[in-house]
Amino acid sequence: MTWGRRPGQFGQSVDRLTTGGSPAGVRPSANAMRKIPGWYALKTFQALNTVIRAVILGVAALLLTFAGPNAAHAAAIAVTATNDELNTDGDCSLREAIQAANTDTGVDSCLSGNGADTIMVPAGTYTLSLPSLEDSNTSGDLDIVGDLTIHGAGAASTIIDGGDIDRVFDVQIGANVAISGLTITNGSSGPANDGGGIRNAGTLTVNSSVIDRNWAGNNDSYESGASGGEIFNSGVLTLIDTAVSDNDALDGGGIVNTGSMVLTRSTISDCWLSA
Question: Whole-model pTM?
Fold first, then answer.
């Protein structure tokens, strides 16, 4: 033993080396940790990561709040049948699509949604053929009770024909409806009923469409009180790039407006009053 070390001293030096200069079992001090290369960069990254996670979670919460529960569940409903029907034969008629939107439930093969649904109506002629006068959309006109958008393939291609059994669309109080790319024709509101093509008591926007050859009353006689051959509006009506023509009524062959109405780049022509 001429090395000048006491027994065990060499082993203690090894312990210090393997623990970064601290005795075995002793955590390095904060000052010692700061001397490790890259320590500041690591701590900065950890702090930045925490901030980023908090921001992402906050933005996600705000998006969910402002989107609301309905926005995430509104349905895009594709019409697949031109027949006027309300049954379970495995397709989706226009009436069935509107019923699915009204009730927020699946009807036949039409998707269910919850909120402001959109109905896509491809090219074709859709003729109403279930006669009756009611407001639940099971027959007669197409009754709309909630928020809904109906897109056609263009006024020259997608034709909604009332079949002279009733008016075509009945937009009820509280509904917010947008219609585009359709021709609405051959509606007949029946004796003493208003709005041969459309009766609107809600908020309705009609864009890039044609509304023609509709009658308030019967198409061969105009009863007292039948007003608005094309549209009877008691709500909020906006027509954009839309042509209204060749409509008849005892009072107001084109449009009778008792609410609010705005026409933009739209025309009303060849409308008749019958006395």
Answer: 0.70
